[in-house]
Specification:
By secondary structure, the chain is an alpha+beta fold. Helices cover 25% and strands 18% of the residues. It binds flavin-adenine dinucleotide (FAD) and iron/sulfur cluster.
Length: 627
């Protein structure tokens, strides 16, 4: 990458932002905000993006600083590369690790009302949470959009899969997805004719091949139907080998698809290919993994009449949505602009435009609306909070399976993502982790401590023991569907504020029995899988673990899936939903709430590809409004 060409951050100051004449104000420079900004910039609309994180991070030096912070961090939790910013705080997993099940958590950013304590997180950084996402980019299945009609549980979407399909293609191009259409079709996804992903699938790891071979011929019966237990690769937002067959809608026959490069102003560098060093979460050192800065940089390069169309104001935290009294329009958004993350001193300004878009993620969008005293006609803002509960099962394989090769996950067991059993039990997909037991037990550090302190190993003996232990680790991570329930919710409480005086989210959350039934099933399935592979089951759930849940007399440790969603669901009218199918507020004619918060159900797909597809669709609606 030619770093001399990077002149970012090209940001403006609060005075210019307050005086600007903008068509659109977007709050949040994550993937949702960046897609909308880019699409509107391409159509010559004047856009101001307000971002809570620091602008300095948006440079090669800023990215290197993330890496240095990560390398030197003692705890490699998934926020480890990113310094604590009290002015734009986030939930961090170390905050909950010491808690007991159901223990209130008023000191951390999220005040957790229980009964379940979630360790889900997100980032308030330029580029948002995609900086440290894992980058699985999976389409939802057609039946996921019609859960109430088909399975008599959950909610229907106001649109169907076929309405979103063209926008899935746009999102896959934007993210640069590597994947295999044939295997996704076998799992129930539908594609347009002759479609291929921009890049070939990430090849299954050696571990995947060992597991797939061991499971050969395995079947289970569920609700009277036989399901194969075998592996399929996951589509991924990371650079693989471009597929020469890929022909997007704006196909240029003179050019093959170019993987998205590392972030530079000129975007002329081909993207680095994935090097398979399994560090994807929390940060990809070579930027082979997509993150939203790659879209943002394109947006910031768009020009209207020779001038840049899009302005970016960083270190600016939206604190209030201000509605014009007596009208259904938003008049302005109040912003607190700070100079130093460690100093609460700030200026308060109002920014104005014709259309306002909240793209701060499911929890923060709801928090901002509720903090502004805008619960909405439906009173559904903040309610129906969803996430994917994860159940981890771990075992030692009889022989080395060569771990730590490839991205964190390349394949999974995905055949139980759909079926008639969904009328009483959640669907799931199970990831096969290429990074061993890290998520479950803190390996390899925990193994090292055990080898040195308990087994008294050192030198060659230590190396051999570590290799023997780690290269045989198998972790199955079941990502379980969760349905909307109004009692799972985000609220605010004037007693709980952050350094800038903004209200913090108060989260009340329970894992529904519908999901726990699937967790119980997954535990039994794992035992069968381990037996078939000749693997020694080491799964153990600690009663005192913060995420411990009792179900049918057994205990399970549940982990947060980081797919926060459902807090401003879309629907068919202003009493059953917060936004319409274009993510436009029913109550405010110039306000959009975008992102996974708009999703009425989440199926078994990580949410980002779907929320990105929704944002491409919303960009058209916003453009039409402006016309
Ligand atoms: C560890 C981890 C792994 C994940 N893996 C996957 C995966 O494999 N696949 C997948 O699909 N998804 C995954 N996700 C989820 C994914 O990262 C999110 O779905 C996605 O990033 C959400 O995008 P967004 O733009 O809606 O919100 P965000 O990415 O959260 O962006 C919101 C932006 O708004 C800014 N902001 C917030 N509040 C304010 C405010 N008040 N004022 C101004 N700016 C504000 C933030 O700084 C941020 O830039 C993962 C998440 C985590 C944490
Ligand atoms: S495996 Fe390594 S190179 Fe590939 S996306 Fe993950 S961190 Fe980046």
């Amino acid at each position: 990458m030619d770093q001399s060409k990077n002149s970012f951050p090209r940001t403006i100051d609060s005075k210019k932002a307050a005086e600007g004449n903008y068509d659109v104000i977007i709050i949040g420079a994550g993937i949702a905000g960046s897609i909308l900004a880019h699409e509107l910039g391409k159509k010559k609309k004047r856009v101001l993006i307000i971002e809570a994180g620091a602008g300095n991070d948006f440079s090669p030096a800023g990215f290197r600083a993330y890496l240095e912070t990560f390398y030197s961090a003692v705890s490699k939790d998934n926020q480890a590369p990113f310094n604590v910013n009290p002015n734009a705080p986030v939930p961090r997993s170390p905050d909950v690790k010491a808690l007991r099940p159901g223990e209130p958590n008023t000191d951390a950013y999220w005040v957790q009302n229980g009964p379940f304590v979630s360790d889900s997180t997100y980032s308030r950084l330029i580029g948002g949470t995609t900086i440290h996402w894992e980058a699985k980019a999976i389409r939802m299945l057609p039946e996921d959009f019609r859960m109430l009609d088909i399975h008599k549980v959950g909610l229907n979407w106001p649109i169907e899969y076929k309405d979103l399909e063209p926008y899935y293609r746009m999102a896959e191009r934007e993210i640069g997805v590597s994947g295999d259409v044939a295997s996704q079709k076998r799992l129930g996804a539908e594609f347009s004719e002759n479609y291929v992903y921009p890049m070939h699938e990430m090849p299954p790891s050696y571990l995947d091949q060992v597991v797939d071979k061991g499971l050969s011929g395995m079947k289970v019966k569920l609700d009277g139907t036989d399901y194969d237990i075998n592996l399929a690769t996951f589509p991924q937002g990371r650079n693989g080998i471009p597929n020469k067959e890929y022909k997007p809608w704006n196909y240029d026959p003179t050019k093959d698809y170019q993987p998205v490069g590392s972030v530079s102003l000129h975007q002329e560098d081909q993207g680095e290919r994935c090097q398979g060093n399994t560090n994807c979460v929390p940060i990809c050192p070579v930027q082979a993994k997509y993150d939203a800065r790659k879209t943002l940089v394109k947006a910031l390069n768009e020009k209207c009449n020779g001038e840049y169309c899009i302005d970016l104001l960083c270190q600016a935290v939206a604190s209030q949505v201000i509605v014009d009294p007596g009208s259904s329009k938003v008049k302005a958004i109040e912003i607190k602009v700070y100079k130093d993350p460690n100093d609460p001193d700030h200026d308060t300004v109002n920014v104005k435009g014709h259309v306002f878009i909240l793209a701060t993620n499911a929890v923060e969008n709801a928090r901002l609306m509720l903090a502004s005293g805008l619960p909405g006609t439906s009173k559904l803002i903040g309610k129906n909070l969803m996430d994917h509960p994860y159940l981890l099962n771990w075992a030692l394989l009889p022989e080395s399976a060569g771990l730590f090769n490839g991205p964190v996950v390349t394949s999974g067991i995905c055949n139980l993502r759909r079926g008639s059993f969904r009328r009483y039990q959640a669907a799931f997909a199970a990831d096969i982790h290429n990074d061993g037991w890290g998520w479950a037990t803190g390996s390899p550090v925990s193994d090292l401590v055990n080898c040195v302190d308990n087994l008294n190993k050192f030198g060659t003996g230590l190396r051999n023991q570590m290799f023997n232990q780690i290269s045989r680790q198998l972790l199955l991570a079941y990502m379980i569907e969760m349905l909307p329930e109004e009692s799972n919710r985000v609220t605010v409480d004037p007693r709980f504020r952050d350094a800038l005086g903004n209200l913090r989210p108060v989260v009340s959350y329970n894992i529904p029995d519908y999901s726990m039934k699937a967790a119980e099933y997954a535990r039994q399935l794992s035992k069968q899988i381990f037996q078939r592979l000749g693997a020694e089951d080491h799964t153990a759930y600690d009663l005192l673990d913060y995420g411990h849940v009792n179900y049918n007399g057994d205990g399970y440790s549940i982990r947060g899936g980081n797919h926060l969603s459902g807090t401003h669901i879309m629907g068919t009218n202003k009493t059953n939903s917060v936004v319409n199918s274009h993510q436009k507020s029913w109550d405010h004619t110039n306000l959009y709430l975008v992102g996974a918060g708009s999703m009425p159900t989440i199926g078994t797909s990580n949410t980002t590809l779907t929320l990105s597809a929704l944002c491409f669709r919303t960009a058209e609606a916003v453009y039409n409004d402006l016309k």
